[in-house]
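Contributing: when you submit paired examples, paste them exactly as shown. First protein:
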Amino acid sequence: MILTLNQLLETDLRGKTVVFETDTVYGLGCLLADKDAVRRIYEIKNREAVKPMAILAANIAQVAPLVIDFTPAEAVAKKYWPGALTLVLPKSSLVPDYVTSGLSTVGIRIPGSPVAIAILERFGPMVVTSLNLSHEPAILSWADAARYDGVADYLVPGPDLHGVASTVYDPIAKRTLRQGAVTISG
């Protein structure tokens, strides 16, 4: 079902998946503690269960409780957030294993999209991955995203995007795990 942003913000997302723009690509997301909805994302994407999902958050206050220690990431987060940088850190007990495929770390980012931030401020940190089938290119156009109407529960219309996937960076090892839109310097 296609909803405006305001309609989505008034909707109960429990058990539901939602497509919305981020600052990079269209995302497919759900509530963090919603095991059934996370499972649906894996099914929609035809994604292998061994591939962890990332979490998007609206601000550092939402991020901090999800990781054991945010200190190693503070400088790089201050420099590049909000933006296309996913930081990988040891997760806290608030992050379920079904989100991280049993890994002890989690990828988290604060997107630079006002639409995404509004959704995350309203619903809290969410499990979000790129909207696409696994091993296929991420979806950048609203026309392509709209094809998921009836597959995902809710879709929020947006513009065509021109983003590059986020860079994935481990601030503890000081290592780029996937080069994307952001180049880490220093």
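Second protein:
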Amino acid sequence: MPDQVRHDDSETFYEFINLALMGRKGGIPMTEHPLMKPIEILLVEDNPGDADLTREAMETSKILNNLHVVGDGEAALAYLKKEGHYREALRPDLILLDLNLPRKDGWEVLSVIKDDENLRRIPVVILTTSRNEEDVIQIYNLHANCFITKPIDLMQFINVVKSIENFWMTIVTLPPNGIKK
């Protein structure tokens, strides 16, 4: 098997990618390229502390992103359907969804997203405090793309957010951001 690049150090990984993109002719680093469009992320989180930590982790990112935060399930669906004061909202490339939300819980939001032909291709990462095995099974039955239990430790939480970001924004090919039938 050929040698593999280790991704233990994300800083080194990004430097490697930037060097690969720049080549020997002095190209533009990936994060500064004028044609790079930011990744649109919708965070559905009712805990202001968790929302702030997620925002801080994303702001230090080497990947262009716009993080949009809503605090309950009804607001999330209004955002996704461009209703009310969300008429101008951009369609997210990725959704980070808490399960325990006011007004409409994350279970209902996920179900609506995955039942809607125009929304179902948006990847949904469940980011919750639950460790219940039945929750995991039910969430995957509703077609979530990922289930992550929020760590209690501050640094672990930031590392989890950065891991989500690294995986979903550098490794995975996201579907085109637009409605296709």
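If you have annotations for the second protein, write them as plain sentences, like these:
Strands lie at 39-44, 65-70, 94-97, 124-128, 146-149.
Helices lie at 10-22, 48-59, 73-80, 106-115, 133-141, 154-171.
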